[in-house]
Amino acid sequence: MSVAQAFDDWMLTNQGAMEIALAQFLPSAAVVPARLHEAMRYTALEGGKRVRPALVFAAGELFDADPDLLTRAASAVEMIHVYSLVHDDMPCMDDDALRRGKPTVHVKYDEATALLVGDALQAQAFSVLSESTADPVRVLAMVRMLAQAAGSLGMCGGQAIDLASVGTALTVTELEQMHRLKTGALLRASVFLGALCGKALNANEEAALDAYARAVGLAFQVVDDILDATADSATLGKTAGKDAADNKPTYVSLLGLDTSRILAKKLLNDALTAIAPFGDKANRLAELAHLIVHRTA
Ligand code: GRG
Predict the structure, then answer these.
(1) Which residues pair with 98 in a beta bridge?
(2) 246 CA distance to ligand 1 middle (Å)
(3) Residue owning the nearest CA to atom 26 of ligand 1
(4) Minimum-distance ligand 1 atom for the alpha carbon of 52
(5) What is the pLDDT of residues 133-161, one digit of tens each?
(6) What is the pTM of this model?
(7) Is the CB of 44 under 6 A from ligand 1?
């Protein structure tokens, strides 16, 4: 089997595991309030690339993680991610009708339901993580890591800067700061949550993972900006060309397409260099960095 085929199989296995875990960790649509639970399952199941769970699993493999804790961490991160997408698509934020190839939650259901779906997914993420029977000190560190990545000093803070920056002229440094929080914080937390499910990290390992996670987090956003400007809505499963239509500062609007592509390649190189000391054990993390930079959707 080729290396590429083995990686594709590994991704499919993880996506399957994620589907089963999310289906189990989300309340059944038969449980009251049925409409809310149905909407939570509608948006969280059968969709998305599951990049964040893959980062959790890949980092977990590197540090011989506890499988149950790893599945809980991957599910929790994905629930936070899905909540952010549901809220981001609402009329008070990005106002989008299409996500993961399906009508967004406020379109399919209604705005109040979309708000509650996001709130409930966020709460469920912490519930799933904290119900682990692993060492409570370790679980508490993971809860803290996820909370900090999701909060006002992480994803929510980045979203606030994003909303305030529409129609303004950001510098590349300011754009990077926004994305480090909005998208980068949760991607970084995915890597560290996976690692925390395994043996304790020494300072060198922590620094290497941090450099990898930061490079991959930023690369993800640079590529997202490139795809928004170049791909079509059917391929992306969400509305393409929205950044320019909304007058949002992006890597493409600030640097142009060619320089943005060069930057994405440089970040890929930074990510691979950072994890080189781990050797072959970090192959999955390396392959994920390639996937993030070379993805087409
Ligand atoms: C509402 C608190 C709050 C935060 C929203 C993540 C986010 C912050 C907004 C999403 C807007 C957006 C399109 C950001 C660009 C990067 C991004 C997170 C893309 C979507 O992630 P993918 O490509 O999506 O991993 P899938 O559907 O594959 O999981």
Answers:
(1) 103
(2) 16
(3) 48
(4) 25
(5) 999 999 999 999 999 999 999 999 999 99
(6) 0.94
(7) no
Rounded CA-CA distance 184/25 in Å is: 25
Q: What are the tokens at 110? A: 């209604």
CATH number of 7-294: 1.10.600.10
According to the model, what pLDDT value does residue 246 have? 77
Q: Is the CB of 222 under 6 A from ligand 1?
A: no
248 C-beta closer than 6 A to ligand 1 = no
Q: Counting runs of H as helices and runs of E as strands, what totals does the chain give? A: 16, 2
CB 185 near ligand 1, within 6 Å: no
Which atom of ligand 1 is least distant from the CA of 237? 27
Q: How far apart are CA 170 and CA 183, in angstroms?
A: 17
What is the per-residue pLDDT for 218?
A: 95
Instruction: Tell me what pLDDT residue 245 has.
Output: 76
Q: Which residues contact residue 121 at a Cβ distance below 8 angstroms, ignoring those fewer than 6 apart?
A: 40, 43, 44, 79, 80, 82, 83, 86
48 lines ligand 1 (CB under 6 A): yes
Torsion of CA 51, 53, 56, 60, to 10 degrees: -120
Amino acid at 265: K
Where do the structural domains in the chain lie, given as residue ranges?
A: 7-294
Q: Which atom of ligand 1 is nearest to the CA of 50?
A: 29
Distance CA 81, CA 83 (A): 5
Residue among 81, 182, 251 to mutate when testing ligand 1 (max atoms within 8 A of CB): 182
Asked if residue 88 lies in contact with residue 43, where contact means CB atoms within 8 angstroms, the answer is no
Burial bucket for residue 15 (CB in 10 Å: 0-12, 13-18, 19+): middle
Q: How far is the CA of 224 from the centre of ligand 1 (A)?
A: 9
The alpha carbon of residue 277 and the mean position of all alpha carbons in its chain are separated, in whole angstroms, by 25
